[in-house]
Amino acid sequence: MTCLFCNIISGDVPADIVYQDDRIIAFRDISPKAPNHVLIIPRKHIPTLNDAQAGDAELLGHILLTAATLAGQLGCKEQGYRVVMNCNAAAGQTVFHIHLHLLCGRTMHWPPG
Ligand code: AMP
Ligand code: ZN
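# adenosine monophosphate complex -> structure
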């Protein structure tokens, strides 16, 4: 099985990494939808949020809290930012290794498309 984001984790595919630790890695989206668009992913391959288990709860929380930390580092914390995790095709998921989108630097609209 070939997974693009596993290949970024291994270093086989280059990425503009903004944060990493033993559990997660964050890098800039190659096709940004906002002035700042970062993807935060677990090193563990989990295809969709539907595949996450109770034992992944702490990992998922770490991803979410890291989004807030990175938003602060990007200067977006007070202005506001959006976090999104698409699950399966109808929601727009195209890479089947879970990732949290962190978007900021412009005014967002609601509801999303
Ligand atoms: P999603 O549509 O929610 O699955 O999001 C996948 C995201 O991955 C999209 O926003 C793509 O622009 C982004 N993406 C695809 N390939 C790369 C890559 N090589 N490096 C960084 N981001 C990528
Ligand atoms: Zn993967």
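# post-check
The chain has one domain: 4-104.
The radius of gyration is 14 Å.
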